[in-house]
């Protein structure tokens, strides 16, 4: 509290002199750390879904107890330099990592395909330890944007970077980024060489896919480098502490913790034949309620909080400078795309646990700025159960997919997914929330653009 | 800034002593004022739509410049006392006005049908001047909840309170609230008697509807009271300053400022016959883009900012105590219900103008707490233009209604409405944003429940 008083006097006096917003001192104290926690797709609908399910409708999430809350404007540049109003995880993570607004699909590259030095790379160059932890493949857009540079997010391994077929559609790849063309290589190839001390998540398959010309995989390329690659969670705490550590605990993304009962997600309401002829007639049957239950595929997957603890343990060894750690709860978004609210909720629980780990770390490392934010908004909406118009003698129902979740207290929370009828929902364009611990007070304004989140972190670390 | 320093020292020292969150001094200074600005349905999707359209995608709204931003958990009690996760404007306005969580549809009454004294009524009793301004009928849920008490929001006039038909459906009314049954009367009847100094908005028809038994209208009941009722905007500044003022400038809600070109709102994408047979086949034609243009019906309707200025002028005459003023931009919500994004955007512009008026007022009345918030989230979503999956050889489109807005810079912002297929969209359940001026710093935490917004205002006024 005395620290708060001194800080207040500092900003008040500096305000008297300059009449400018408060800024962090230019040169950082040591050790000074940033933990950036990204909930992919973790917009205000998902925050509220998480609160209602995990803490109760009158409860508080851990993030709700943080003293700083801001709104972040998500920005994307179109191919013709006009703004586009909805982003993806590649361009937004690139903006968070570099402070530069770019085009959808780009990983660590500008709209003119320049490689952008990321905050993790600059932190490393300045002597900070660095870590990237994600529940996705570590080659996926968000983690990749902090440690690699390709023109298109699909270029995750040495095969696909040369083009081919992706998601059953022809894909041009990123030929200019391929090593055979003098580029830095695919995301997996760049990751094994990246100046990041700890990289934990999924994505093993991209490290075992070989370059069709040389026959080499990213793991083979790593053999001559001072990096341990582990795939067994039991090895996490036993890896050589003098080497960089890459832990890959699934072939693709890490499995999610929860699923809907019987594997069910959101479903289309079932309408009578008469209603199909005229929306005012006939009847509708809503999908049966579902419960959230453990996902059997989760098995012994290491939790995101555990991975965060391991990363922090390693990064604080022999470290007087500080650290930059990015942790992503990736599948809030992925499960929203495929309309599985229980899947998203389990990953919000994982994000909450990571925040708790970060707050515990900050207790013994007081110069730690913890920022929790989202990259972009998503499709899910909490809608009334029943409809606001339930008394009207007309069948009223979502034209999309709905899941009626049985909450711990027995009430029903209904989630709507209706941005398209395809197998994967669209992102949406709302500004996203940002939460920060007390160290962020005075540094983070109530409203900022996504590139400015990067700037706050970089300024705090003196980068 | 010196004030900020003193404030910081105050909270820091009080924190040292009590280790409790900072609180306002128990007894208010004089004059001390609260201006509560409610954007109905003004959730983060609408905030972002407004920012993109009014300030530009890289710009800032007036609310974005306010130093305090928080998230508000919207809460509603069901008939069986279980939580329900989506609210309406009646129960949320009642919570903001009284600090009590209640059931949908209730106006100034608890879940057990008790009449709840509102902050406006308590402010009046404590000597503050009070005002209610809305772009809806002043008998509509939000304004009504600050100055009247009925069990159901439809009971706006002395006829319907006894039941009948509302929106072509049988309606039970609020017979226990009717004057013939010893109750306080319909909302219009209560408003003419309410201890509110200035009431401005629409809703004249409810004041000219007669009680079927006595034949009296609310306006006739007002004849013996010290209240001026004006319907001509030119009379706004000429009304007797020694009387209460009720200004009613439309028979129903005030017309909105903007509409879509050719009166168009969101429309359903047009799909080919083949696509109707199988979602993977055929083609889709998206609705033509639309521009936002002035609504001819708006005519000489007084703007919400003008009404706010008039209210503040009257409320500050001979006033050493302070004031409570609630201003609602009502039709952000109403236009979202009927899928008219241009309509919502024009009303967001009006809200912005009201915030500017309030900030100007606060310059000469420094003990003014300005809070801008929403009552509940709404259906609109900004979705990608084109789809994220535009490269997939399958028609991908919203199952609901979309409007492709031509922005001032020529880019397209697409808005999706897809919570139902009825003539009016559903509300949604996300927490809503709250913005406050510097006076709110230290008083408003980063996260609060809607009832606590009331508590902050009441505490600030010493009520």
Describe the structure.
The structure is a homodimer. Helix content of chain A is about 25%, strand content about 20%. Chain A is of the alpha/beta class and about 475 residues long. The first copy, chain A, has a single domain, classed as Alkaline Phosphatase, subunit A (3-Layer(aba) Sandwich), CATH 3.40.720. The first copy, chain A, is globular and about 70 Å long. Mean pLDDT of chain A is about 95; it is low at about 1-30.
Binned, the helix content of chain A reads: 25-40%
Q: What order do the strands of the largest sheet of chain A run in, or round the barrel if closed? A: 9-10-8-5-15-1-16-20-2-21
Number of domains of chain A: 1
The greatest interface between two protein chains, and residues involved on each side, is: A-B, 86 and 86 residues
Count the beta strands of chain A: 21
Summarize this entry quickly:
2 copies of one chain form a homodimer. With 463 residues, chain A is α/β, with parallel strands linked by helices.
How would the blueprint of this fold be written?
2 copies of one chain form a homodimer.
Chain A lengths: L1 H17 L14 E7 L4 H12 L12 E6 L2 E2 L5 E2 L4 H10 L20 H7 L3 E9 L3 H4 L19 E3 L2 E3 L15 H7 L4 E5 L1 H4 L10 H5 L4 E4 L13 E5 L9 E3 L9 E2 L1 H5 L6 E2 L6 E3 L9 H12 L7 E7 L1 H7 L3 H24 L3 E7 L6 E3 L17 E6 L5 E6 L14 E5 L10 E3 H11 L3
Parallel strand pairs in A: 1-15, 1-16, 2-21, 5-8, 5-15, 8-10, 9-10
Antiparallel strand pairs in A: 2-20, 3-4, 6-7, 11-14, 12-13, 16-20, 17-19, 18-19
